[in-house]
Amino acid sequence: MGHRAKNKQPAPQPLDVKQSAISSKKLGKRKAESLNDNSNSRPVKRPKDQSESKQKGKKKKKVLVDSDAEGSADGWEDVADNVELKIQAKSLFSTNDDEELDELGMDEFSDDELRGPAQAFDFGSDAEDDEPEVIIGKSKKSKQSERPAKIIPTASDNSDSSDQSDEEERITMANMAARSKALDEQAAAEDALDVEEMQQAAFNEEDDDDDLDMDEDEEETDGEPFRLPTREENEAESKAGGPDVHVVQRRMRECVRVLGRFKKLAEKSRSRSEYISQLLSDISSYYGYNDFLAEKLFQLFPVAEAIEFFEANEVPRPVTIRTNTLRTRRRDLAQALINRGVNLEPIGKWTNVGLQVFESSVPIGATPEYLAGHYMLQAASSFLPVIALSPQPNERVLDMASAPGGKTTHIAALLQNTGIVFANDANKARTKSLSANVHRLGCKNVVVCSYDGREFPKVIGGFDRVLLDAPCSGTGVISKDSSVKVNKSERDFTLLAHLQKQLILCAIDSVSPDSKTGGYVVYSTCSVTVDENESVVDYALRKRPNVKLVDTGLEFGREGYTKYRGKIFNSSLSLTRRFYPHVHNMDGFYVAKFKVEKRGKISKASDSTAEVGLIGIEEEGEQIAPEKEKIAFDDDEDRPYIEESKRRRMKAKGLKPPPRTTVKVAA
Ligand SMILES: C[S@@+](CC[C@H](N)C(=O)[O-])C[C@H]1O[C@@H](n2cnc3c(N)ncnc32)[C@H](O)[C@@H]1O
Predict the structure, then answer these.
(1) Of all atoms in ligand 1, which is nearest to the CA of residue 434?
(2) Which CATH class for the 381-596 domain?
């Protein structure tokens, strides 16, 4: 557990002060006593890009749900410790009959190197096997900072035809207008109070040395100038039981500030890697990550943004539900739930089936509407791959890793119960909650099966569309499952990427290139790492010359990386989409969409790539666990990457790397 969790302390002041309306300098200060405050009154950073979606400011209690709706990727099983909770867990399915998965080999594209023994990966939680559970936090003073921010609304979602296009209008204008108006007035008054409070607090704390100052124009911090501790000081600090939480907080802010203007602010005798090294060590201890994962996630973002990401992982995401259009319409569902005392709103224009729940006086996972299958408790991010898949009536669809069925039931609804959905999951125990959800939501076009996904298309192929919502590390859902912070090692990422590469080729091979209406594969993960996303997709492009990336149809989300830390990916990777908690107020997620064309002659080049999918290969060329087979490895091609990787690691440790002997790889 990190300092931050241990002390249940408020979030560090936002580091990106430009987003704040009030003087960032003043807002950056904190009272030391607040560090031990359990009152859940920490300021929650508003996600970026939210100007349009600014919270209407309704008085909203937090609603937390422990449901059978979703797995670790999509569920609500992890209950935040900062909300008053009551949990009455009841196991629906207690059996644990995971099957051993056999080794397979069936690929006509000669990717035999991927055919290691099948691993029964199950990175989903068992929590979804519990009775749906809703925990309602009691309302405290409805400070703006305590309300769950809205999910980023963007352009409309055209992915399904329905008679609900004007629903949102009707809900907000007709059903909710009066209520909204009163709440808005109240919220406006509260907002004014909040601003006043913050200004007052900032004024009172002007001399506090916990100053966060990222302002370009500011050159000096108040109080003592920051000095990076020496190695000896750090050793003494850890001998004395680790740093004081104030010290860590201040040091993190200062390191970020210095790294932002290194030439100007750094001590002349200290290198950039020393500052980074200190910051990483503080991030690990403050947020409670293992060193490996802290660095891996840190590398994804510019320095200040990385802190925003780590901060966002400490805050629960909004509770959202998906209307099951096989049973009801969104406006009818909204009205029924409003009548029960649920405060909700449409999520945003990008989905016409989503509702965000702000507060509820009834358990959201046990209302009559829930039990009758009128909705699914589902994270907003998990709508995205199905919107991208865009299944059309009468199609044959494979959901290759489907339990507990959030996306399967969404697909079935978009098919309007026509066609057929094969809902597969390798974990047999998890298919029970999958079947339960399929029945509850009235999906009549779903066949549930339990194969290792790598057995497709041998089991059955010729699909119009395939969704591979792949087993992953869950680095996008740390706010729900904080165990990810400590239980993921380098080897886990190697093994996962290997499995994902195997599965994605099987997903592609399961699609019929002759499909009249489809011919698409959507690959998604609830992870933000490049190893599990762009690297896997790029691998598939290289291994299957008959596929190309196409637009996901999702009108928000950041572009996928086309290059990352020395790796250069196919330029079409920019068509893939990344979603982040600190940007979109959603779980971290990744979506890629492929079009599968007829198979032509396979070019030799596509199969002779240096990156091979054997257990034991790590992206940058290190052999982690050479367990099974000899690895086809292009030494010459990979030498610069290996060397660059070594140099980076040395630099991160504050060591001076030797001069380059090979050509520098692209950054
Ligand atoms: C991210 S979860 C899927 C969530 C699901 N798509 C949903 O929306 O509810 C990943 C799933 O992959 C399954 N899985 C793991 N290894 C697999 C394999 N080799 N073949 C098929 N499924 C696998 C896990 O049991 C887990 O249920």
Answers:
(1) 9
(2) alpha beta
